[in-house]
Amino acid sequence: MISTLCFGQRDHSYMPSKRNFKIKYVNYDHKNRKTYTAIWQLAGKTKDAYGKIRYNIESEITTIKQNTFYQYFHFTSKDSNFYIGAERYLDPIKLDSYQNMVVKIDADSVALPLNPIKDQLLPEATCQADILRGTGSVLMSMTVLLVNRRVEGIENIETPAGKFNCYRISSDKITFSGISKTKTRLIEWYAINVGLIRMEEYHKKGKLLSYKQIESIAEDFFIP
User: How far apart are CA 90 and CA 127, in angstroms?
Assistant: First the structure.
């Protein structure tokens, strides 16, 4: 009885379940056209002697041209914070065009408090992806900076996966790619024990550029 109850308990985090899960996200452009689908699956989970929990995630991305590729990243949970690798904010479509080359990624961890307070300011984060030639020299670099991060409050969000009570977090996203620089605005909604529910990206003048939302979730299913 005791072991069954412990196994059924959830971690207080931005992850769906203690055992396994699959989440389907769909990304749309500003005209509601699908650009890609991402299926996240828990590939493994560890806990160290200090209570730090690490979730290893495999993401299967399928573009509208039916090209499929994979990304691997991890989330961690420690004390009152949850940490997401900043590499998640790189454009997967751009990375797909370099999938036959070596891509070296150096990323910070993006902090998300598990008990956010309205108007709370959050730490900045950065991620850099270097596309390497066969000689090992850098062909091109892509850098993403997340600045002016702030907890805006609590909102209810509805998607095809259901209704969720979410923390709304905003940030400015500055992207350097080659010699170009763009600045956009991100609004993200996170639900405890689920994770990212929806993310919207806006032009600096306020026009919606794209959005991504959770469309289905399956957890605690049998793995043979």
Answer: 8
